[in-house]
Amino acid sequence: MITIRDLNHDRDGKPTLREIDLTLQSGGITALIGPNGAGKSTLLSLIARLIPLQHGQIMVDDLQIGACANDALARRLAILPQTSDAAPLLTVRELVSFGRYPYHKGRPSAEDRERVEAALATFDLAPLAERRLDTLSGGQRQRAQVAMTFAQETDYILLDEPLNNLDIAASRGLMHTLQDLARTHDRTIVIVLHDINYAAAYADQIVAMKDGRITHHGAAREVVTDAMLSEVYGTSARVHRIGDTVVVAV
Amino acid sequence: MYPKRLWWLLALLGLCIALYLGLGARGNWGFVLSFRANKLIALLLVAVSVSTATVLFQTITRNHILTPSVMGFDALYLLTLTVLIFVLGGQTFTQLPEIAQFLVNSLLLMGAALALFGTLLRRGGHDLFRMILTGIIFAGLFRSVSSFLQRVIDPNEFMVLQANAFARFGRVDTPLLTLAALLTGGALIAAWRMRHRLDVLSLGDESAVNLGEDPKRGMFQVLVLVSILVSVSTALVGPMAFLGLLVVSVARQITPVMFHSIMLPSAGLVSAITLVGGQMVLERALRSSTPLVVIVDVLGGLVFLILLLRRKPR
């Protein structure tokens, strides 16, 4: 369970988050949505301790962000880094192996190697294991990074707009993978999404934000409505319900 | 595959060392060997310090073009030396025992280097061109201040300065070498023990945090090590400008991996081969008195230009 209490955050003197109180239950996929500049990414970065906490408190189960040991948190919570070209020379297996670093600090045991192979198999990466990252497509590289966070074996996985630069096939592939991680592997997933349709289709919970505040929080079906769209985004797009699915006509 | 290449490099270095020590030695072998061994140790020490400092620096700046020298370190050396002679006077400076000269010089440099690199990295972030630009402007500033002070001091002091401003392997004595070996040896061991953390840090700040490494702490520790390594080796023999860039670029071709357990030894070996082999060819085969630095700088400068021009725009 991620508990956020009385969180305020300023950047360059401007308030980006105001009085955030939020409890995210364990399990399932929670999507953070909202217009640009609503503070979704800032909130995610604060939970992942990518930026220092200014005011308020964030707890991930019993670990307090900013106070607990870095490597203890690295075994509990992972953030999928935005696709980087920082390490083009790595092979897929080498990248996935880094997921075990919080456990072995550079000296992998036989068990660590097994976990890496298992992660490669789970994500159908075994045929690509020896390929270098710079020879892969964007979707394949994304999958390799998800495999790395999978090998990290954290209860929580955070993702910041992972669908940027992915085509529809790769986007759906990634979302299905995340759904599988949440359902069969009991991981809790928090994801910042731009496309409300993806949020409505794959997320169990949706948190909508505007101007640094949380405006809506609830099951995807209940949150995505005409009224929410006009309140949060200021647009009059229509929401259609077709059977179990919710679709925003754009 | 790559560990095998390291063994080849090691064999080549062994050959260079044997030739350097043995070739053309006449007369009293004991005397010749001890004289040359001293010089050899200085060469090896500087070679490994410069290559390690360059690899570390490139890891935290996350590019393969920048080196401490490119970022204005050599100009900083000249400035501290000038200020030192300006403040103490040439007379006092040359009368200081060599150890004291070395210590004052390297301590001043360490502090200044830490301040310089710290400022550059904190302000520039990871914007490569901005960092190169700031480095060049800082170097220009340091040079201007140095040349202003050089105009003010009297000609005798200027001569003292000139003698110390260029890399030379001629006059390294044993106590000095021992002290330098202890300082750099400690830094090298620390760098080697950090090798797995360095791998993680080179993935990027976010990835490092995700894997439980604090990038700020890592960067500070690396900067301290870099400052020690470049300051001690520069205070020992003088600035080596493009040596680091040249040897690390060659090492990246020979062992194209990002793992520091391979890159650190690989770069160290290439660097040692370049210095010892180059010095051997120059001194023994060509009987030339051209300083090796001049040749290394020409080649290194070319590599720098090629890297900069070939770089794909993002």
From TrEMBL, chain A:
Molecular function via GO: ATP binding; ATP hydrolysis activity
Keyword annotations of the record: ATP-binding, Cell membrane, Ion transport, Iron, Iron transport, Membrane, Nucleotide-binding, Transport
GO BP terms: iron ion transport
Principal cellular location given in the protein's record: membrane
Membrane topology type: Peripheral membrane protein
Subcellular location field: Cell membrane
Pfam families given in the database record: ABC_tran
One GO cellular component term: plasma membrane
ABC transporter domain span: 2-236
Family: Belongs to the ABC transporter superfamily.
Descriptive protein name: ATP-binding cassette domain-containing protein
Native species: Sulfitobacter faviae
Lineage per the UniProt record: Bacteria, Pseudomonadati, Pseudomonadota, Alphaproteobacteria, Rhodobacterales
From TrEMBL, chain B:
Pfam families: FecCD (PF01032)
InterPro entries given in the database record: ABC_BtuC-like (IPR037294), ABC_transptr_permease_BtuC (IPR000522)
GO molecular function terms attached to this record: transmembrane transporter activity
Keywords noted in UniProt: Cell membrane, Membrane, Transmembrane, Transmembrane helix, Transport
Main location: membrane
Keyword Transmembrane included in the entry's annotation: yes
Family: Belongs to the binding-protein-dependent transport system permease family. FecCD subfamily.
Name assigned to this protein: Iron chelate uptake ABC transporter family permease subunit
